Amino acid sequence: MKLFPYPRLVVMLLVSTAVGFGCSKKTPSGPSATLASLTLSPATIAGGNPVQGTVTLSGVVSDPAAVALVSNNAAATVPSSVGVSAGSSTGTFSVTTTTVATSTPVTVSASFGGTTQTAALVLTPPALTASFTVASLSAAQRKLGSDPTPVTLLPAGSADACPLVNSANPSLDCQFNGTASTPSASITAYVWTYSFGNQTKTETSTNPIFKPTMSGCASFGGQSGSSSGGLQFIAMRVDLKVRNAAGTESAVTTNQNVRIFPAGICGYGF
Amino acid sequence: MQMPRSWLAAMIAGAVALCPAVVSAQTSLQVPLQFDFLNPGAKSLALGGAFAGVADDATASFANPAGLTLLGTPELSAELRSSRTTSLFLQRGRLSGPVINQGTDTIQGPVFGESTGVHTGLGYFSLVYPHASHRWVIAGYRHELAHIDQQFFSDGVFQKDPTEFTSRRDAPQEGIRSLSISGYGVSGAYQVRRHVAVGGGLAVYTFALDSLFRRFDVDGFLGAPKRDVEFGRSTQRGRRAGLAPTIGVLLDRGAARLGIVYRRGASFDYTTVDGSDPARTAVFRVPHTLAIGASVRVRPSLLIAGEMTRINYSRLVQDFVTDQARATGRQASFSVDDGTEWHVSAQYALRWRQHPPIRLRAGVWYDPDHSVHFAPAVQPVTATDKLFDERLSTALSTGRSQAHVAGGVGFTVSRQLELNAAVDVAPRNHVFSTSLIVHLGQGGLP
Asked: What ipTM was predicted for this assembly?
């Protein structure tokens, strides 16, 4: 009696099955995968802005994996590790950077499965910019006609106004308050250029608070002694640029919304 | 009884160009205010003002007193008049220098706003009494010579002189004006010969002027006006009465008439208070007018009329304009030209059977520019003066001569009642008028 009529077929199936198993590729997992690369984008950036990092393993993993991260400079901090999800070969993380005064190189390292990769990051100082405000220092009042109550035309601290005071020797009575994009300690000069009428002046200070020094009704371009100009406002243009210790200068910031406020002098009716 | 047919008539047309009042300096003059002194009555209005050679209704008591002799019966006349006048004023924009494109400094070139005044009221009322002899006539009347209510607000224009580093801005200004001149007069006419009549009148004019001009702060140099912060104000106020005579002649040769009228303009004191300066008094002078007109009845149903009216608007310059320019020291740069108006019209009597005719009227007239002009009398030296000249030249550049087109209709409702309606249209002026004439005596219509 024959138990199975095709013994050769059985053998062939067994052999091919065994061979087939032996030829199949087993997915790396755990320590069997390696860290292929570490990249940072962008590689150069102004401090204070985030950077994206990417780790890439040599193949997809069947189980979640963690890649250890290290930064060699506190100006750029990284998480202690970045995860790689199952079925993936990459993981991303964010590098937090801080403002730096000078160009600062940073090295970020990633380790996995006994392999370490590094990437270079260069942090640059932020672009040097200047800004400022203008405010009046004194108030101006005027008594209108028969109205017994003086009217405050310009309260002290008014923005974008620069009064002239002292009719005997009219002079500007306002102040500029400058700020820079970098800490004030790093700024070595505030360069102010201000002009109105037919006069212009450039002055430099180390203090961010500056009081303009222009004086005299001649600044009004011949209005002195004439009441015909008393119904006009004259603009004062103020420009500021700052310079840091490295000699870097900011672009010029301009305010053309400042008005001179004669308050009853220099031929002005109000 | 044969109705008198040959009389002379005349009328006076007037117009006045006013330029505003100024605050603590120049600027009410930047806002031209122009108005016209028109003859009363819907009939005169429909005839385009060509009434000196017609003058055959009760409005002759104002327009040409000599024409009163044309009226055969006592008459009562009333007119309701509505007017709409538009004036342009410099409202915003930049006159020179580059636009900064911040705040309100975003428009290169001047922007003019429109100030429109609308008024409706009893324009005229009169009572005429002809003597039974028909040789003399007397009349009393009330006439609203001018009535203006206007207001404007200017944001303040930007300017920059090439020699300066920065721009300037005119302080925002609000202006509110009210002017009213009404006349209460008596007139008389006498027929000296068969074809010649003379007339005269004397009127008491009441004058009321109220103007307020205020200046305001702005938000920064470029920002919006701050209407809650007032920098200064100026007022012009006057409540006065003044006498002014009128004389007229009418030559009537039946189918043709010739009328000549001369009317003196009254003068009124008013007071200007400019900021904290001491109050000062100036004089508002109504222009004198001389009108010469003629009419020809080419057919029984067709009347053609024409008129030339000379108006010395320049009377307004003295005081009223120069006072407002006083603070600038540039009074000589302001002027108002005298003007000559030309009027032509026709009236056609449409008859149907025995019914009273319907009178169709149409006219056109030329209204010369009588606005205030600015032409620098001296070469500007300082930037302030240069910009002042630029600003005033621009602000006072909008005056234009106008052609008026008028039309209307007259109905004879009964032997005692006549109704007229008229409209006068020009680019910046619209007038609508209805008037009622009641014939009180025997004999009915002339």
From this structure: 0.75
